Every structure is written in structure tokens, then in C-alpha cells.
Amino acid sequence: MGLQEIAFGGIYLSPLLIYALIGFIATLVTRSLLHWIVGQTPLWYEAWFDISLFVIFTAATTFIFTILLESP
């Protein structure tokens, strides 16, 4: 039930697009906070770190919304 398409102005969109957008915003916020706290010190490999954060946040968002939408 959590991954059914959403009709938006006559166009059907995958909810994964919305989940990915939320994951991207969460990644930007987290990356900015870490950059502010740690400073200019390089964090591991920055590109791998950013992709990993994005995947983790997108998967967590998908899991949370799936659980919330399926509960009675």
C-alpha cells in the first residue's frame, strides 16, 4: 500500500520520487550540520559519504512511510 502511485495533475508519480526528494533534503541538512560542526576537516571520501547518506535517508524514509501508511 505504501508504494502506490500518486496522481498529480493527471500525471502518475512514483512515491519513491517523493521519498528520494525527502532523502536528498535530509542529506543536505545533515551534510551542512556536519560541515558546520567538524569544520573544514575532510570527512572520509566526501562523495561516498554523501551517496551513503542519501541512500540511508531514502531507505529510512521509504520504510517509515510504508509502516505509517499500512497501519490501520
Structure, described:
There is one protein chain. The chain is mainly alpha-helical. Helices cover 68% and strands 8% of the residues. The protein contains two helices and two strands; from the N terminus they run ββαα. It has a two-stranded antiparallel sheet. A hairpin with a 2-residue loop joins β1 and β2. α1 packs across α2. It starts with 5 loop residues before the first strand and ends with a helix. The model has no long low-confidence stretch (mean pLDDT 86).
Care to give the gist of this entry?
The protein is mainly alpha-helical and 72 residues long. 68% of the residues lie in helices and 8% in strands.
Strand content: 5-15%
**Radius of gyration based on Cα positions:** 15 Å
- Show unreliable segments: none
The helix/strand series, from N terminus to C terminus, equals EEHH
Note the gap between the termini. 11 Å
From the spread of the alpha carbons, the general shape counts as: elongated
Q: Walk across the major sheet and give the strand order.
A: 1-2
The average pLDDT is: 86
Structural class: mainly alpha
Q: Can you count the helices? A: 2
Overall number of strands: 2
Helicity range of the residues?
A: 55-70%
Query: Major sheet, described briefly?
Result: 2 strands, antiparallel
